[in-house]
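Exercise 7. Predict the structure of Alcohol dehydrogenase-like N-terminal domain-containing protein from Linum tenue.
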Amino acid sequence: MIKNEWGTSTYPLVPGHEIVGQVTEVGSQVTRFNSGDRVGVGCIVASCRSCDNCIDDLENYCPKYTLTYSGLSSDGTITYGGYSDVMVCDEHFVLRIPDALPLHSAAPLRR
Ligand SMILES: [Zn+2]
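Solution. The predicted structure, encoded as tokens:
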């Protein structure tokens, strides 16, 4: 992705998926998470949530999904991945990390 070997990279590019971290802020419609929660995110941060694939929980086949990095958010900004300081993600794609599980051990998990 950094070298655009697949021809799909969008620059500036900050790679990183299968991310763990801590919620620092939530939007007004977020219901499942609060600031301070320990969370993880796979490789998708958003999708249309209305196509047949999304309804069947197969968002990775959604023609409008947004990747964790090198994707375009609904507001037109480029998504930056796990090596960035902060990121924005639809709560549907966020996992809660239990306190007993060290964050460094949880990064590659997916719902
Ligand atoms: Zn969809």
